[in-house]
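Entry for the shared binder. Reason: the reviewer on the internal report wants the predicted structure included alongside the sequence.
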Amino acid sequence: MRKSDVTCPQCQAGYRRIELTSKGGVAGEFRCLVCDHLLEQMDGSTEIALRLTVQPNKTSYAT
């Protein structure tokens, strides 16, 4: 298992990213829950979960 933090470059929302290398996942993409910016493309080779941990003030960025 790998843990890391991801920050959206557009709105500065913070996410905790957990990757399980021992388990296959689903191919797809993950978009920021605050501004809809594409954060990651997943190929399905590992299980990846992202959880919003820092929600920015919506007035501090332009969508």
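Summary line for the report: The beta strands are 2-7, 14-20, 28-31, 38-42, 47-54.
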